Amino acid sequence: MDLVFNLETNFFNFFWDVSNSMYVASQDLFAFEISSKISEVSYYFANNELFFLYEIFYKTSCFFLVMELFLSNVLDAFLNNVAIYFELDEPALRRYISFMDPTLFSIYHPETNFIQKSLNNTAYLNFFSSFKLNLAVFLDKNNIIEPLNYLLQISFWIYFIIFFSMLFLSFFTKNKEEFQIDIEHSFINLSSEAEKEIFSVDDALNLLFFLLFFFGVYFGFLFLSLHSAFTELFVFFLPLLFIFYFIVLIPFNLLFDFGLFFVVYLRGSSNTSSLFFECVYDYIGVIAFFTRLLVQFVRLVLMFVVYCMMHDTVMLQNYSQKNFLIGDSFIDELTSVQPTGYSIGCFLFVVFPLRLFYWCYEVMHTFFVVTVQFSAFFTIVFWLFLLFYTFFVYEKYEHHFDNITKKTKKSN
């Protein structure tokens, strides 16, 4: 019995120490002090009309609180199942008293159970997870926008993950059937036409896709998200990563196909008969290509600045500024108009046209800057890609498809 009890005691001590250390660490990392400081920083950004940074810090503080709440709930469940509902005899109970925390006073003093009953149902060792959960449910029970918003964002995110994964994996297929050859031949023809005419079909499709992604998705999710979702993460930062990923990785994919010593299989760019100088010129061309590619990302920085300006404008004009304690928003001004002939006429013929003109100016200015920069960015990058593509691959692919065409004609 003593051996069994010692094992139970060691088992309980181990899990108790692990759980307590987890909660102490969570309090140090995710507790209310850290969250309150981050929240103060977020409201500082809000007071200075930096709403872009406000949303990021606000959601960070909420994330810390959610993590602390989750760990509190886990520790409460552990304490409730192991310590309270554990069947103990009197000697065992006295042995446990020697190492239990004194805040478990109601467990080994039954006379206090009547007084501590309600507290024990909601709090053990000041974790208070049930109280926090009840408070969260009370605050969010009528909130329908947030679940719908997260559902839309998750479904949208899953859709683009599947789409881009299928698109990217199609470049690595080893299938050499006839329909795949026809697709590759069509793609090569489009690339050939694009080399002659820069703004071709594939340029326009890429440009149109990203423009629709920036404007349509931005305003759509901004309308649903209010101030409770990572709008910037889904709308701006992730598209930038996708752009960088695809534009830079496709040339790397070509290098990967030919191997590190790809110049052995190619004629090279120099006219000299020396293999050493041909290799040097080829690698210099590759380094120059990627250097020019990285320089073009300065245009994305300019688009980022314009995007932040439009975002702050939308936040300032559309959101209820009572949340930020800054002035009045357009919606507040609309609802505060007194129903008189003069006020309605002034609002309809003076205030509303000016606001509408200002909104049109912001949207068109952003659209113009983003369109011009995207056009220049994709045109130059695509030209560099074609230069790199023609430099190493195009001639070999052209001979390959010519041979396939000749074989097909002979077989027919």
TrEMBL record:
Q: Where are the transmembrane segments?
A: 51-71, 150-172, 207-226, 233-255, 275-295, 340-360, 367-392
Q: What are the UniProt keywords, alphabetically? A: Membrane, Mitochondrion, Transmembrane, Transmembrane helix
Keyword tRNA-binding listed: no
Record flagged with keyword Oxidoreductase: no
- Protein name in the entry: Ymf66
